[in-house]
């Protein structure tokens, strides 16, 4: 029979060469995909961490801006019982004492017998035995009139000039202590921001030759009770608001404590002393907030420490208003720091 030519095919050598080429190409493709996936995952981690820290920064900005706020009470109050003049403090009953705290000034009555009195206690802090009572020294007699027979008690309140506690164990480079009506709900709260290591023992990382510890920035907010005497109250339990904060604390030289940017977490570029007869107080005019946060804490792509910094400057307007009142001669009317501040920090939360 006539012979036919053999069909063309691949030799073993050609197949092996093809497999090698394909393997090299796939290795490059998969390596690229792997690196791209790590970069994507790293960007997601950075984005989520940044969003969380940014939300905390906004919260801190709002709360620090409210430091020293002493809200007026509305509507004005009334008293329906006669009050004799007396050089000693006495308790009188109002229709409502919501929003009145010890240290507040009140305008009592109208006309000839109008006077400004300072509240020395209330039913809420145990100075008076009955409900809705305030304690003060009344130099004039007050008699209800009209229908219904009452006399008015109006707000005469000023900010807390010491709304940010500073000096003598107060706020420093990594702790911030302040108080005021931070939620604008009529309740004075004492707020503490401070650090606690993320792990035990503490986790550290090295950046440019400096060893930084990873901390959580904690927040505690406690309603102020205005006790009648100096009291060592305890803060409410704290919760972390920012995780993996990079910071170096130099206990031997606190001025050397810093984050990777060289700045403290809390800076006070504007602090001044105000004379209020018969004492002097320290007023914080500006707070600079600088937070450096480690991511993961290392980059998934490069394996080195990756971090970012957020910063802002806050000027508590209520403290500035208190200084303005003092400079205008109204220093004696400014609200005093409550007796239970600063409070004792709960264990395991604060550095």
Cα-atom radius of gyration: 32 Å
Strand content: 25-35%
Total DSSP helices: 2
Overall pLDDT confidence: 86
Order of helices and strands: HEEEEEEEEEEEEEEEEH
Content-based structural category: alpha+beta
Helix-strand blueprint:
Elements lengths: L11 H54 L11 E3 L10 E4 L11 E4 L6 E4 L2 E2 L10 E4 L14 E5 L8 E2 L10 E5 L8 E9 L6 E4 L2 E14 L15 E9 L18 E11 L2 E20 L6 E10 L2 H14 L21
Q: What's a concise summary of this model?
A:
The protein is α+β, with helices and mostly antiparallel strands and 351 residues long. Helices cover 19% and strands 31% of the residues.
Mind explaining what this structure looks like?
The chain folds into two domains: 50-70 and 160-333, no CATH class; 77-155, Beta Barrel (Elongation Factor Tu (Ef-tu), domain 3). It has helices at residues 12-65, 317-330; strands at 77-79, 90-93, 105-108, 115-118, 121-122, 133-136, 151-155, 164-165, 176-180, 189-197, 204-207, 210-223, 239-247, 266-276, 279-298, 305-314. The strands form four sheets. Strands 8, 9, 10, 11, 12 and 13 form a six-stranded antiparallel β-sheet that branches. Strands 1-7-3-4 form a four-stranded antiparallel β-sheet, with no helix packed on it. The protein starts with 11 loop residues before the first helix and ends in a 21-residue tail after the last helix. With 351 residues, it is α+β, with helices and mostly antiparallel strands. It is 19% helix and 31% strand.
